[in-house]
Amino acid sequence: MKVYYECVPCFLRQAKEALDLTSADENLKLEIMMEILEFLSKELSKNSVSNDIGTRIHHIIKNKTGNNDPYFNLKNKGNKIALSLLPEIKELLIQEEDNLEAYVRAAITGNLIDFSALGVKSNISQIMSKTLHKPLIINHLSNLTKCLETENYLLYLVDNTGEIVFDKLLIEKIKKEYDIKVIVAVKEKPILNDACLDDVLNIGLDDVVDKIVSIGTDSVGINFSMISNEFLTIFNNAPLIISKGLGNYEGLSERKYHNKSVFCLLNVKCNSTSHNIGAPKGSNVLFQLK
Question: Which end of the chain, N or C, is less packed with Cβ atoms under 10 Å?
Answer without folding.
Answer: C
